[in-house]
Amino acid sequence: MKLKIYKTFTQENNIIMSQDVLLHLEKHISDTNTLNLVLEKYLELYSTSKADIKKIENIFDLLKSKSEKSLERNYFLIKNNEFVKMNLKNKFNFLKQKIQAEIQPIYSLKENEETIIFGIYYISSTNKQILEDIDNTVELDFKYLNDSICLIENTFISVKGILINEIFQVNQVVLPQILKSKTGDLSVQKNETKIIFISDFFINKNYLKRLENIILLNSKVNIIVLMGQFKVKNIYEEIKEFTNKFININFIIVPDKNDIFPSFLPKVLPYNLKYKNIYFTTNPTTIFLNDRTIYIIKEDIFRNNKNKSTFLDTNFKSESKSCDTNFKDKTESLNTDFEDESMSLETNNKENINLNLEQNIQNKSSFQGTNFNTNFITTYFSQYSFVPSYKEYMSFDNLPDLFIVGQKSFSHCQEIRNVLFASSGEFNKEGGTYILYDALQNKVEIKSLN
Asked: Which GO terms describe its biological process (predicted)?
C-alpha cells in the first residue's frame, strides 16, 4: 500500500511528502477507497502543496467527523433481539391467521369427511406423526400426499385430508403464508450500500489479513458483518486496531452462542453497543437500512434441523430461483492477487437466473439440486421465527428483504416468495466463502476464496 500511496499522491498529483509522512499515511490507509477519500479531501483543502503530518491528521479528523455525522442521520439502524417469555398460544393464533382456508378444530373431526386442520407438528415417543391444536391431537398419515414438503418438528402447519379409523389421511399440506415487510423509499438512499457477511470468523492475524484482502477487492463496501465463533476472550481489544485502519467502514459483530461463554440464543455480549465504528449486536439481530431490512442469525439451522425433519418428495418442481454449491477447500495461502469467483442472485433479472447460476455451479462443483433446500427454507420462513423448532421467543411479524444465516454446513443463496435467503458457510483457514450484498440492487453474491 505504501507504493500505491506514493504513486497516487506524488507521481500522479505532484504532492511532495517526506518519508515520515508516507509512513504515517501507510499506517492509517489500507484500502483504495480510503486512499481516494483522503486524496480528494487533501486536494480540496491544500491543493498540491507539500504534505506534512499536521495536514494529514486534519484530513483524518474531518473524515472521521463526517462518518460519525452520517451515522447520526440513521444511515443504518440495528435492532437487537431481546428475550421474551414463550407463549405458544399466541404463536398458534398468529400463524393460524396466515392460513388462507377455513380451519376445523381437531376435536370436531368426523370420519370420512374432508376438511382442513391446523396445529403444531411433532413425532411422538412411539414414532407417530402428530398434529396438535389448542384442544386435541390426531395422528397423521402422509401416504396420500401429492405435494413436496419439508416437515420440521415443533412447527405449525395446516393439513387437508380425511379422518379414516381415527387417523388423518393427509393429501395436502398448507404452510402459513409468507409475507415480506414493505420495502422503504428507495429514493432515500441515493448511494449504493454494500455489505459483506462473513461467518465463523476466528480473530487472529491470518484471518484479519485475509479480511483486508477482501476489503481491497471490494473497495466500495460500507458495512462488514462478522459472525462468530471468534474464539477470543475480548473481541474489541483484538479487533480495534484493525478497524481503526478502515474509518469509512462500519463493523457489526454478531456473536456465536459459545463466544466468551456458552449460552442459549439469543446471545448477548457483555459489551457496550458501540465503540467508534464497531457495533456489538445480539444473535440474532436485525439491520434496517433506509430502504431494506436484513435479518441475521449465526446458527447451523440446516445441520441442527435436518435430523428433526421429514422430507416428503413427490417430484416437486421448484418455482424458486436458487443457487447451491459445495466449495472445495483450498490449501493455498491468500494474497491480494487471489482470484475472486462468485455466483449471484438478482431479483430484477429473473429470466436469466437459472442459466447463469447453473453455469457458475458447474464450473465450481457438482450441482445437487434444491428440493430439500427449497422446501426447508419455505417451511423455515413460514414459521416467522429465527429458530422455529424450539425458540418461539425469537419471532418476527414479517419477512425481510434479506435473511442471512451464518453456518458451517454449506454456502447457499435462494429466493423464496421475494425474500432472499443466503447462507455464508464457514470462513476457514483453507479458504471458505463470504456474502456480498448490494442493497440498492437487492443482489446477493456468494464469493469463494481460492
From this structure: DNA-templated DNA replication; error-prone translesion synthesis
